[in-house]
Design a protein that fits this description.
With 367 residues, this protein is of the alpha+beta class. The protein has four domains: 74 residues, conserved putative lor/sdh protein from methanococcus maripaludis s2 fold; 92 residues, Efflux pump adaptor protein, beta barrel domain (Elongation Factor Tu (Ef-tu), domain 3, Beta Barrel); 76 residues, RNA polymerase II/Efflux pump adaptor protein, barrel-sandwich hybrid domain (OB fold (Dihydrolipoamide Acetyltransferase, E2P)); 68 residues, Orthogonal Bundle (Helix Hairpins). The protein has four helices and 21 strands. A hairpin with a 2-residue loop joins β12 and β13. The two termini are 52 Å apart.
Length: 367
């Protein structure tokens, strides 16, 4: 009997505990939940709004060295990556004469030789008559001039034949068109020809064969593109910060110097070409064609009162923050209209509405 009595009391106690626990749980659930927030105090800071243009670093001018005569490359004296001075020889062209031109030049030499021999004979005869005082000085001088003309014509014909065969004469070796020379001081970026390649000179119908590409690597520019939504804020002379993918440890200064007046549609958006003059120390080697990003500051706000943009509530054209008015027993906030200024995406300037010593509502605290 006592065992049954104790068992009954135990069951009643368990039921009572469950009832009380359920009551307490339901009571707690019915109470309003208090949400706590982090508080943020405005900070005075400098803000910048910038845009980034992607592009490449390249020499301002790349000079294409082309031959002044057609033929076949017989020697190549320089390679890509070497420095050259103005008038330094890069390659040599061997002339391959056209048969018709060669035949005409040889025929001209033969005729000039015949004329020169005849002039020599005539002059010898006239000279003897002149010494015998049988002709006048005028006739003697006239025949002497004819001899000089014949000799000059023979030399000209021989020079012409040399040019047709070799592209050069012995008398004008320093002005040879068969020796391809650099027109500027600089670095050879490319030598696309090899010994044995045929080359042609530029003319009305053809640009000619490029022997080498030479550029002054001390005068570099950044060439990139920027969207039309931001091009209106740019102007020549703006400072640019340049980062190069291959030289991530360095940042280079540049100055915007060109904004294209005409846009080009790419992927459904209008893009405008920009150029910026790059300043690089001599200790850093920048290669032509390096990919780069140009950061351009569009707008600045110095010593502005700022708050995290995530703390601002935007409604139409208005902006609001919640200012802490009391923290006992719970946090109390007042919704306040503010006037905003420049934003860099993380922080936003507040021109009116709050003070530097006020606290505003931030992110919700994790319970």
């Amino acid at each position: 009997m006592k065992t049954k009595k104790y068992l009954r009391f135990a069951l009643l106690a368990i039921v009572a505990v469950l009832f009380i626990g359920t009551f307490v749980f339901l009571y707690q659930k019915s109470q309003p939940k208090v949400t706590l927030y982090e508080t943020v105090r405005p900070e005075v800071a400098d803000l910048e709004k910038s845009t980034v243009a992607t592009g490449k670093v390249e020499p301002r001018d790349e000079v294409l060295i082309k031959p002044q005569i057609s033929g076949i490359i017989s020697e190549v004296y320089k390679e890509a990556g070497e420095h050259v001075k103005q008038n330094e020889v890069i390659a040599k062209v061997k002339v391959i004469p056209e048969l018709g031109t060669l035949n005409s030049a040889e025929s001209r030499v033969r005729l000039a030789e015949i004329s020169a021999r005849q002039a020599e004979t005539d002059f010898a005869r006239i000279e003897k008559l002149y010494h015998d005082r049988l002709i006048s000085a005028e006739e003697y001088e006239k025949e002497e001039v004819n001899l000089k003309k014949a000799r000059e014509e023979l030399q000209t014909a021989k020079d012409n034949l040399e040019i047709v065969k070799e592209g050069i004469t012995k008398n004008s070796a320093s002005f040879s068109s068969t020796l391809i020379r650099s027109t500027i001081d600089g670095l050879i970026l490319d030598v696309p020809i090899k010994v044995g390649n045929s080359v042609i000179m530029s003319n009305t119908f053809n640009d000619g064969t490029t022997i080498a590409t030479v550029a002054n690597m001390n005068d570099l520019i950044f060439r990139g593109k920027i969207d039309e939504t931001e091009v209106g804020r740019l102007h020549e002379g703006m400072p640019v910060k340049l980062t190069i993918g291959a030289l991530q440890d360095y940042t280079f200064d540049a100055v915007l110097e060109y904004i294209s007046p005409k846009g080009v549609e790419e992927n459904g958006a209008n893009q405008f070409e920009i150029k910026a003059a790059v300043s690089a120390p001599d200790s850093v080697q920048i290669r032509s064609g390096y990919s780069a990003n140009a950061e351009i500051v569009l707008e600045r706000a110095k010593q502005a009162l700022t708050v995290p943009e995530s703390c601002v509530e935007f409604s139409g054209d208005s902006a609001f923050v919640y200012v802490l008015t009391d923290s006992v027993p719970t946090q109390q906030y007042q919704r306040r209209l503010i006037k905003t200024g420049l934003s860099n995406g993380l922080k936003i300037a507040v021109k009116e509405g709050i003070g530097a010593n006020e606290n505003i509502r931030g992110a919700e605290k994790k319970q």
